[in-house]
Structures are given as structure tokens and as C-alpha cells.
Amino acid sequence: MSTFKNKHILITGGAGGIGLLMGKEALKQGAEKLIIWDINENKIAKALNSLTHYGDRVFSYKVDISDPNQIYETAQQVHSEHQNIDILINNAGTVVGGDFSTHSRSDIERLIQINLLGTMHTTRAFLDSIIEQENGHIVNIASAAGRMANPKMSVYAGSKWGVIGWSESLRLELNSFSNIKVTTVEPSYINTGLFEGVSPPTLTPLLDAEEISQKIIKAVQKNKIHLREPFMVKILPFLKGILPTRLFDFVAGRLFQVYHSMDTFTGRT
Fold first, then answer.
1. Which residues are known to be catalytic?
2. pTM for this entry
């Protein structure tokens, strides 16, 4: 089992939402250092203020993970100041809603740069040192959207399909020669505001941010390969495997209204 006690934890997008909640839980579990990466300076300031009682165990860096140069330069700084990262949680992400035909070039590129390439580059920046210490845990926050198509979130779904495929491949590579663990997290909609306005599918309620954050921490401690929430997401691979595509589309689209969940999406204001 992995443990947070006396470990150095780095969380991207760690100044808000489930990133901050996971950071707080890691500190409660005895983490020696929590290192927050985030692009928003105001959120970083608020996060640090909410964590003052943890004293000198919390550190923050302003990083735009859509920029590989910033990732690798800041990673060097982190290595210099903190030596090692034991648990890396790739949490930072963004979403663009609407029909693919309405997306601008910049919408498409920035989303892929953050959700997929940023996750890959951040991991690559720390992977050599994690391999060298022969122990560690990499957590990749993907999405249930990475398991099934959904209208009005095509680019987001594409980015998360990429994260899942890459994360699974990385796990197999590392398992072949090391004790490094990889956990892929695939949640449905979480009530953090990122998907403001969505209509949750039938039998798939909005996930509570604090509850899913605690489940992620527990999944890491138990070295789980996948964490899928809620229950309907757990059975998604099975349903896709046994149902013909048109029948699956009927079940998902007509019965459970998954394909209409983004019709009312507004996003964060």
C-alpha cells in the first residue's frame, strides 16, 4: 500500500476544487510537503491562506502547464528546492463545451495542451527522479468522458481518452521494471463548477467534490489501478463491451440521457 506519511506530494491545479481538497487530505494523512502548481495567483493566495495551520509544509508555484517550457523549468526548481516527489497527482484540466464545429483553433489547442500534453510533460519532467528513487505513485485524473463519446464535449472527451490510453501504457511500462504505481481516475461530473449547468444523466448524480477527493486518496493508498465513480461509470466498460453500438447509443442517449447532459452547460463564469 502507498502511504502519504512523510511523503512529498505535488498536485497540479492544486489551488482549488478537488486539487485543493486532495492536498488537504494528504496533509491530514501526514504528508511532509504539499507542493501546489496552479496558473491562478489569486487562487494560490487563497489556498495558502486556508492552509496556514500546516505551517512550512505547503509550497506553491505559478505554472501554466499548457507551456512545456514552464513545466520543465519549474520542475527543475522543485527538484532543487525539494529533492524528490513521491506522489504526483496530475489534476489540472479545463473544458470547452459546444459543438465541435463551433470550436476555434485556440480552443482546441489549449484544451489538448492542458488536459493531455500538460499531463504528459509534467510526468515526464519528474519521471526520471521517481524511477531513480525506485518508488513512487503517479495519479492521473481522467474522466468518464474518456470511456464514452458525448456530444458537445468532443475535444474534452478526446483529451481524456488520450489520458486514459497513455496512463494505462505508462502503468504497464513501469510495472515491467519498477515498484512505481499508476492510478487512473475516471469520475463523472463533479460539483466544482467546471461543468456548471450540466444535466447529470439518469442514475448518475453530480459527485460531491470532498467525497470524491477522499476516495482518490484512499485509492492511492490501496494502489488501485482504476477509480471509477459513481456506480454507473464502474459498469460502463462492461456495457460498451456487450452492447452493439446502436443499442448502446439508445441506452446511453435515450434511456439515461447521457448524450443530452451538456445541452444546458454554461461552464464557470
1. 156
2. 0.96
